Amino acid sequence: MTALTATPERFTYELPPALEASEPPEARGLTRDAVRMLVAYKGTRSLVPSTFNFLPKFLEPGDLVVINVSGTIPAAVDAVDDEGDPLIVHLSTRLDAARWVVEPRRLVGRTTGRWTGPPPSRHLVLAGGATMTLDRPYGRQGRLWEAELALGQEALTWLAVHGRPIRYGYVERPWPIDLYQNVYATEPGSAEMPSAGRPFTPEVITRLVAKGVGVTPLVLHTGVASLEADELPYPERVRVPESTAERVNAAHRGGHRVIAVGTTVVRALETSVGDDGCAHPYDGWTDLVISPDHGVQITDGMLTGWHEPESSHLLMLEAIAGHQALEDSYAAAVTQGYRWHEFGDVHLILP
Known about the structure:
Layout: E1 4-6, E2 11-13, E3 36-41, E4 46-51, E5 64-68, E6 70-72, E7 76-80, E8 86-94, E9 99-108, E10 111-113, E11 123-125, E12 131-137, E13 145-150, H1 155-162, E14 187-190, H2 202-211, E15 214-221, E16 236-240, H3 242-253, E17 258-261, H4 263-271, E18 282-286, E19 301-304, H5 313-321, H6 323-335, E20 346-350
């Protein structure tokens, strides 16, 4: 059994590098929905190994699955600083037409790394004659910056030509943007894929609906997820439609479960909760941080990936699953060789 510990701030464990998924399941000859899924029941602390294509088996008629239809943008761009040195910038969160929160990263061999202090230059030259000016640090850690972009055209149009998907060191080679999109994505805006939804296929969605399980959308444009160990999530843009709020409330009135697909959906749903404890339409920013001290009100279960040690997402999972069930799940996932990150396996947490 792998040793796991939880501090009042972070849940941690040891992740063997061999469990980091370095390529999409399609590259291993699998379909999206053939990835492994560990089902954890909070109430009984039982664990059921399965694969994602059996998701409908674990849900009941009347349950409601909430998905994030934000699409992944090619948010990694090449840049050159005043000294002519190359670097990579990750565009994280769009603040307005020209201003973004960004993460400059230095090149280290074939991968990238963070600066321990400010980047050496705040004026960067991008492809196609575009420029970026790093104005001021964003947040307390110093790795993110508020930046002004002069692209000469709409940002998503420019990125479609000059950007590529954000890729970290555990992914050994570049993959096309299509492999970073969920099949139901409709609105581009996320710097990184809301990856809990990646295993969904039209066939799985059809089987859910045929069983009487509802599927309803919201939007949360997620920023870069490479948080420092002591860094909490920062504000993100959210839209919960009136129809989704109504369906969440109706599911609860009928005694059914609301299952969030990913941490982004949990954050968005819980942001929409009013003083009456019900979901309401919402269109704006959220800075909500969900932890065991700030639990959930309308999220009954969730589908999620496997998160890195000390990730802030684990605080949310502990709020939903409870400490002991989370510890059991992660110990089993490590022992049984589940795969981590956006191309990895998934974890279904049910009451």
